[in-house]
Every structure is written in structure tokens, then in C-alpha cells.
Amino acid sequence: MSVTAPQGFEAAGVAVGLKSTGKPDVAVVVNRGPLKVGAAVFTSNRAKANPIMWSQEVIRDGVVEAIVLNSGGANCFTGSFGFQTTHQTAERAAELLDVSAGDILVCSTGLIGTGDEVFRAKVLAGTEQGIAELSADGGDAASLAIMTTDSRPKRAVAQGDGWSIGGMAKGAGMLAPGLATMLVVITTDAVLDSAQADAALRHATGRTFDRLDSDGCMSTNDQVTLMVSGASGVTPDPDAFAAALAAVSQDLAQQLQGDAEGASHDITIEVVNAASENDAVEVGRSVARNNLFKAAIFGNDPNWGRVLAAIGTTQAAFDPYDVDVWMNGVRVCSAGGPDAPREAVDLTPRATHLVIDLKVGAATATILTNDLTHDYVHENSAYSS
User: Fold this and answer.
1) Least confident of 49-63, 129-143, 174-188, 329-343
2) pTM for this model (two decimals)
3) C-beta of residue 168 within 8 angstroms of C-beta of residue 9
4) Could you count the other beta carbons within 10 Å of the beta carbon of residue 221?
5) How far does Cα 107 stand from its chain's mean position?
6) Active-site residue, 235 included
């Protein structure tokens, strides 16, 4: 049941016509407490959508009563009118829930520039309908309502010692890191204060969602939210909670990777023996964002030269002539030169594992990406039409 698996949460997903398909397009998740703790991380894109600007203010005091999310329109670059739409959404939810509008997060996703009077009316109607249909079994419906180009919903649940975590996510394109990617809502019935929730979320996000780099394009609307009800009455071991939150986040990130627009390969880039974790991330990301490498994988071509060319653009510490590269378990490059023949590598499976050994330290990092396909180009060539 994703976000309603933990105790203390109700959710709903409704259809109000924001999507031309008639599918669900407004979701509401409400925290019934007793705690009303929240934490969130946001896109670092300077071009921020109205809901992001609103939610960044809401989260400052660490109190969140509910979150309202819509698909079918980003409400980004819609001016002061669009910001008032977000404000009115929070006010309408607050009125119906008898709480403060300053404790209501708002998220939107869809086409940038969408957010006119018709959009506003539908979002407000969806907020009312969603709150009217709130249910302890509503998590699945909510996960459907936040989908855009997603082909399937993304949900994950983890059980702790007397407490639990549940989550839902959307995202299939514009998946690149900047504190957060895509829209994600995670809930827990564990007992945490706002500082603990914030620290745990940032730690998990930094090593999961932030390392999903599908196409190098950062959205204007990305947000990852953690809501804490404390309804279990159990204060978790901090390490155990951190591990469970990271596991849920990783599960959702991998589901997002597997549903990336047009992808035919899910590529795991593992950088090992780097001088620092930052170096490992930089090297991995350079390959994940290299269109020549991604096109080669689409063509089942183990072109390791494109890997070395990509990592050579970084500032990371390594000797280009002492790097090893493995593709799907076959070492194709040893000490910066050819090793096993290319035909020894089978790239026909969807799962593709690339290992880059820098041989200069003990740090490691893993970046998730996918290949560049005809379907990705086709889907994004007609996104607004």
C-alpha cells in the first residue's frame, strides 16, 4: 500500500481531468499523527516551479500535516497567478483538514507552462475530492495519480522492529540529481524528531536518488518528502532506520531507472578504488551522461574507449593509462589498453554492469543510468504536442 503501509496515514488518488486520458491526476497524503514531522529535499535547479517555492517555505519548521500532488501540469513559469494557485491549493486542503495552510506541502508535475484558470479549478476540485476520499488503503491510488510518462507506479515498503516505512515515486524522464529527483513521498510510523528525519532523508537521498542519472536533465519540480506520524510509538535504532530508509529509497530509484523513457538497458556504473567518494561519483556521472557511450550500449556495442574518453573529462585523480574496465563481467580494458575481445561481452540482457577501476584509493560509488534509444528521442520530440 506504499505510503499508507505505515500507521497514521491516509491517502487518495482521484481523476479530475488534468490528464487527457481521464486517468487519476490528483493525490493527497495526510498524516493523522500523533507526530506531524516532515522533511524534504528539492531540486537545485534555479528555475523552480511554484509548488517548490511554496514547499521550501512550508518545510522550514519541520511540521507537515499533508501533501497535495497533481500530475497533468507543472505549474512552472506561470507567474504570480501560478503561485497563488499553489497557495490556494494549500489553503483549500487546510480548511478541509482543519489545519494551517503553512503545514501543507504541494507538488506538481507535467508540462512546464501549464497552470491557467482551468488548471487551477481542476486542482482545487481534486484537492476537495481527494480529501473526501481519504482512506487507510489509499496509497496505491495515490501512486497512480502522480504518474506522467511513467508506464507503471513505483511503490516500496520496509518493515522495522515495530515500525515501518512506505514510499511512492514518479519519474521516467528528466532524471538527474540536484538534491532530489522526480517526485517521491515516503512515510514512516517510527518516532523521529524533525532534525532526525531531515538527516536521515538527506543521507538516503544523497546515495540513492541523487545517483540516478538517466538523461542528465534536471527538472524544475523535483521533490523528495519524508512524513513521520510516530503512530507506532517506537523510537527506532538510528542506524536501523537509516538503513531501512536507504533501502526503500534505493528500491524506488531502481524502479525509476527501470521505467526510464524509451530505455532498453538499465546500466549500473560502479566506480571502484577511487581517491575519494566525490571522485568516484564524478567519474561515474561522466559516463552516465555521455551520449556516445549510451548509444553504444543501445547498439550492444562494448565500446570501452568511450568510457575512457568520458572519464578523461573529469578532475578526478587517476592515471588514464592504468584504468581497468569491465562490462558484464568481462575485463575489456586493462591498464588503459585492450584486454578481452569485444565479442566476449554479451550486452543483450537489459541489465548492464560497468565497472571502472581507477586504482588510486579505496573509495567507491555507483551511478544508475540507461541507454539512449530511438524511443527516447521520439517520446521527447512530441512531449508537448
Assistant:
1) 174-188
2) 0.94
3) no
4) 24
5) 13
6) no
